[in-house]
Design a protein that fits this description.
Length: 142
């Protein structure tokens, strides 16, 4: 790729973001109320450093439903004490666990007091977040 082609792509990207054609993947932690007697939160595209600090700041143990890349990146840092974090890994093609499996599994693992944290950073994020929102509505209306 020559300099002219690179400059053209950079110009297109610069124009696309303000016009809403480029998705901004900045994210925030969203409080979801009580789910399964735990304080529930969701987070799309969290950065690992901020995710780690957030988990460490929670006053209770955390039941985390996340994607393999997020989980591996966080656990490899080694800063979260044993027993603080309980992990359910979904979107794992190797063993066939999808978001529905993870949600069914978390119902069996609830604890009080506790934090339920749902994150997603893959190409399935929109689908996963929709599934989590529907799960919350179903649980909260029971």
């Amino acid at each position: 790729m020559n300099k002219e082609e690179l400059q053209k792509i950079q110009n297109q990207l610069s124009e696309a973001k303000p016009n809403g054609f480029l998705i901004d993947r900045s994210s925030t932690l969203i409080a979801r109320g009580k789910v399964l007697e735990m304080d529930a939160f969701s987070w799309q595209y969290p950065t690992i450093e901020i995710l780690e600090r957030t988990i460490l700041s929670f006053p209770f143990s955390v039941l985390w439903l996340g994607n393999p890349p997020e989980i591996h990146a966080l656990l490899s840092r080694g800063n979260i004490e044993h027993g603080k974090l309980h992990v359910i890994c979904y979107d794992n093609d190797e063993i066939g666990h999808d978001v529905n499996w993870a949600l069914e599994t978390c119902v069996k693992m609830k604890f009080k007091p506790g934090i339920l944290l749902f994150t997603s950073s893959t190409s399935n994020t929109e689908f996963n977040m929709r599934g989590f929102s529907e799960f919350i509505q179903l649980i909260q209306t029971k």
